[in-house]
Design goal:
By secondary structure, the protein is of the alpha+beta class. 19% of the residues lie in helices and 28% in strands. The chain is built from six helices and 15 strands. Helix 1 crosses helix 2. The chain starts with a strand and ends with a helix. The mean pLDDT is 90.
Length: 307
């Protein structure tokens, strides 16, 4: 991505908002953490004066900032086998396996999905989300399997990010939860934010949470467990895990949001991002892809059916 200067004047709706939040809302494509880095590096000026990330915007403030030219990530491209569901010149859909982290983080620079797609795409990846997340426009947890969109260029990244922001991407998950869910289907609408006592966890947070909606449907009931499909309307961190726990049906294997134990050998929560669908930015037609259930998930369902 070439260095790009952006200039805008703050409108009434931005009054009193932090500058990093305003820029994030204005662009709709850069992560808050990346914007904060741009600010820290002195690349954001308000009325020609450098500001900090907590600067509160005023109406008619003139905001000028530079998105630096992307540099090659200081992380290795690795020849890791990818399960590719679809690929064209603009994007690819991958089926992420269990125990694979999506992008590198300090102290963990190898073995991630990013390392794999860097090798596969030979540098043809969007740079909007910074050097640590080339091509990454959304993510799923390490222990969650399933479909993810990887963007090969900034134009596609911006288009997919806009669809995500507008909730115009179909995202259906499969999960097994504790307990027998009585209703055949339902909707959970409850704001999600940081847990007030544990910053590593999310929680339903009426005071500081963000709007979050999950639709669920029962696929099969077993003795003590239920196989469900969850469709995201919004995409908050740990949304399905938090929402299902909030109605008394936490995900099987989820050590973060339940203390309940199950007599199965599991590695993390039983959650699979099965279906992803969207209007392709280049072809302007709706496309939908399905990641088959992983082997461990299929075996678990067979065990539950036999109980």
């Amino acid at each position: 991505m070439e260095a790009n200067e952006v200039v805008f004047e703050a409108v009434l709706e931005m009054e009193g908002e932090r500058i990093d939040k305003c820029i994030s809302s204005y662009l709709g494509s850069l992560s808050r953490s990346y914007i904060q880095k741009i600010i820290k590096d002195g690349n954001v000026l308000v009325n020609e004066v450098a500001v900090k990330a907590n600067y509160k915007v005023r109406v008619d403030d003139r905001v000028r900032f530079t998105i630096p030219k992307s540099v090659e990530p200081d992380i290795p491209a690795q020849d890791i086998v990818l399960d590719i569901l679809y690929e064209d010149q603009d994007l690819l859909i991958v089926n992420k396996p269990k125990n694979m982290v999506v992008h590198p983080a300090p102290g963990h620079y190898e073995g991630t999905l990013v390392n794999a797609v860097m090798y596969h795409c030979r540098g043809e990846l969007s740079g909007i989300n910074g050097v640590m997340r080339p091509g990454i426009v959304h993510r799923i947890d390490k222990d969650t399997t399933g479909s993810l969109i990887i963007c090969k260029n900034d134009e596609t990244h911006n288009a997919i990010a806009a669809l995500l922001k507008a909730h115009d991407i179909t995202r259906k998950y499969r999960a097994v939860v504790f307990g027998v869910v009585k209703e055949d289907e339902g909707t959970i609408s409850a704001p999600i934010g940081r847990h007030p006592a544990d910053r590593k966890k999310m929680a339903v947070n009426e005071k500081n949470g963000k709007h979050a909606v999950t639709h669920y449907k029962v696929l099969e009931r077993f003795r003590g467990y239920t196989y469900v499909e969850c469709q995201l309307e919004t995409g908050r961190t740990h949304q399905i895990r938090v929402h299902m726990a909030s109605i008394g049906h936490p995900l099987l294997g989820d050590a973060t949001y339940t203390n309940q134990k199950a007599p199965f050998k599991l590695e993390g929560q039983v959650l699979h991002a099965m279906t992803i669908g969207f209007v392709h930015p280049a072809f302007h037609k709706y496309m939908e892809f399905e990641a088959p259930l992983p082997e461990y998930f299929v075996r678990l369902l067979e065990i539950l059916k036999a109980k």
